[in-house]
Amino acid sequence: MKRYIIDHFEGEKFAVCEDESLKLVDIERSKLPKSAKEGDALIYENGEYRIDKKRTDEMKREIEKLMDDVWED
Questions:
Q1: d(CA 43, CA 66)
Q2: Under DSSP, is residue 19 helix (H, G, I), strand (E, B) or coil?
Q3: Where are the domains of the chain?
Q4: CA distance 2 to 37
Q5: pLDDT along the chain (73 residues), means of 10
Q6: Which of 8, 39, 40, 46 has the greatest CB tally within 10 Å of its CB?
């Protein structure tokens, strides 16, 4: 099993993703779930990519907390 985070999309063809070693890799967009968007955590297992909803939600909460901490008076 491999894990990625979608950093951004390069047109309609590729998703630029960060792997666990923080390297950027291109993944064909057609291989991802249609609902995949920037910031989603992905799991690659058994030849398929799927969105890791739990990890995606965790990362969003972590970012929101960091932003709250930055903007606190």
A1: 25
A2: strand
A3: 2-71
A4: 18
A5: 97 96 97 97 98 96 90 71
A6: 40
Instruction: Write the CB contacts of 14 (distance below 8 Å, at least 6 apart in sequence).
Output: 26, 27, 28, 29
Strand order in the sheet with 41-45: 24-28, 14-19, 2-10, 41-45, 48-51
Q: Which CATH class is domain 2-71?
A: mainly beta
* Helix (H/G/I), strand (E/B), else coil: 13: coil
Q: Could you say which DSSP state residue 27 is in?
A: E
Residue 3's SS3 state is strand
CB 1 within 8 A of CB 44: yes
Q: Are 59 and 7 in contact (CB under 8 A)?
A: no
